[in-house]
């Protein structure tokens, strides 16, 4: 099929439709590090699909596991029934999760994981007799999915503008470390821990006894890839603990190895109370998400008044057999390839390649942590986003898939990327930057 044959019947996400028409990227296959485009070209995937295909496309072991599961047990509800793979996967996930995260709730996406986590946070306080704790705190530039809960705590204006009213009783921290002047430093900013104290100020406006949870991406992802300053998350953690507020890490992007450990909580050595994940959970092969809970959160429901256990929340496809099979196979592959350790080992080479773009035309900042990076371009005057789009288009024509988000070039390759391919990505972006105006 050619892109122009698509017609009007199929809608891409609202804002993507026009871009697709002008620069169609139609894929018919994928394997390892590459997509196969409809025009027959192989394109190096420097985005891991959409931050999810951590072990590369069409991993044979995952493909086989899905096939086998589909022929054996196609569906079973998770209401009052289950199947062994769901328990096995839960056990494997809690095995790689940070210490004390002994419980999993399965969802079908990151958005559902976030909404579930927010509901669980409120229900946790209610189960403990603190029903006044309902407020939720997110961050500017935070992205937590497209459900009304995630949208409400999220901080990207254009995502929210046309869909209100959103949830009441939500507040946002600012993101004071989001300006390019911190620029070109490698890894995490050394200074900026004090920015977390804004939470303390916010709690003078919102009585802490009314706040259920603070939700943050440990590394802001969709909002522009901002690694947290050293000690920033630690301070958020301390303030939440002081006031009995749950801290949620949204690890939909950072989960499953992108920072060189299973979760960012481990890579950055800060323990939240709830973790949301998705994407890499099945290597992108079947939709799945999850909420990981520390023991005391789960136990509150079990120890609470009987009505707390009647907590009603769940999805038809929670713990779907195909997703569980894919999830188990993905964890096998990650483990066999030693993928998380490999990521930690190759990250400096990747970071050096990104930083070699410093000084190229239009580049105003480069940020990276693990295998999660961004090259920020200056916007063309009066035409924000155009330059980013042209750069991504030029890379694509040159055989490398990068993601333009406005004037940010987001780079987040499968964790199996080889050194030569890292070089190819850098060469592609460099020559794109030299060609566009
Ligand atoms: N949270 C974060 C941090 C994300 O990056 C995303 C997706 N990019 C989501 C939630 C939503 O996940 P999904 O698109 O699977 O609903």
UniProtKB/TrEMBL annotation:
InterPro entries: Aminotrans_3 (IPR005814), Aminotrans_3_PPA_site (IPR049704), PyrdxlP-dep_Trfase (IPR015424), PyrdxlP-dep_Trfase_major (IPR015421), PyrdxlP-dep_Trfase_small (IPR015422). Keywords: Aminotransferase, Pyridoxal phosphate, Pyruvate, Transferase. One of its GO terms (biological process) is biotin biosynthetic process. PROSITE patterns: AA_TRANSFER_CLASS_3 (PS00600). One of its GO terms (molecular function) is pyridoxal phosphate binding. SUPFAM superfamilies: PLP-dependent transferases. Gene3D superfamilies: Aspartate Aminotransferase, domain 1 (3.90.1150.10), Type I PLP-dependent aspartate aminotransferase-like (Major domain) (3.40.640.10). Its cofactor is pyridoxal 5'-phosphate. Belongs to the class-III pyridoxal-phosphate-dependent aminotransferase family. This is Beta-alanine--pyruvate transaminase.
